[in-house]
Write a structure and sequence with these properties.
The chain is α/β, with parallel strands linked by helices. The chain contains ten helices and eight strands.
């Protein structure tokens, strides 16, 4: 069936947010006397929500996600979020080729939405500022009562707004979590290699499509 709707991840898919995320993580770590983390480390740790990112920054490695993060993780997450609120647009910008892709999709009357594990309070203003000229059916970030991807709950809400059957919607993201999210919701999955994960890691989970440049998405539709 033809694809009539596309749900995008945000960080690492539409926007290159890594410099500002790294700066905010390191500002939070500095407040508690911890050493800074390299952008290459933060790149691996982003994608599962702010508490997970902060737990990994504290540990200096990837860690299992806690259902109830310990107090020190929550305190760091608060500090990082406070800094990010003021500096989230210092260096963040759409990836090369993303504006042209979104123009092409809008010209096709494609129904588009964004679903990210980034906190909703950051997601909405960033999309309005950097991606606001395109028509979004929904823009959804994480928050109280909203399960993180790869849980498909919020995807189903977006599908209702799109008024599209699952077979006609594609999920596009840069991580294994995004591929799992699309699969859990019964969508076509496309993984992109220009974001925060390596091609080999994405290839290993077998998305329906794997692309290296934004314009290649048009051929997948």
């Amino acid at each position: 069936m033809p694809i009539r709707g596309v749900i995008f991840d945000l960080d690492g898919t539409l926007l290159d947010t890594l410099p500002d995320l790294t700066a905010s993580v390191n500002a939070g770590l500095a407040q508690i006397g911890r050493p800074p983390r390299a952008a290459s480390e933060v790149r691996r740790w982003v994608g599962d929500g702010m508490p997970s990112l902060c737990a990994r920054a504290l540990a200096g490695r990837s860690t299992p996600d806690d259902e109830d993060p310990p107090p020190e993780v929550l305190r760091l997450a608060g500090s990082v979020s406070d800094h990010y609120r003021l500096h989230r647009l210092d260096q963040t910008a759409p990836y090369d080729g993303i504006p042209a892709l979104l123009d092409a999709l809008a010209a096709r009357s494609m129904r588009m939405a964004i679903l990210t594990n980034k906190p909703h309070e950051h997601t909405v203003p960033m999309v309005e500022t950097l991606l606001g000229r395109w028509p979004w059916v929904a823009v959804e970030g994480s928050g109280p009562g909203r399960p993180y991807k790869p849980d498909p709950t919020v995807v189903r809400t977006i599908l209702e707004r799109m008024d599209c059957p699952t077979a006609e919607v594609m999920f596009v993201g840069d991580s294994v979590v995004d591929v799992a999210t699309g699969r859990n919701a019964g969508l076509v999955t496309t993984a992109v290699t220009w974001g925060f994960r390596d091609r080999e890691e994405l290839q290993a989970v077998g998305p329906d499509h794997l692309i290296d440049r934004p314009g290649q998405l048009l051929a997948c539709l």
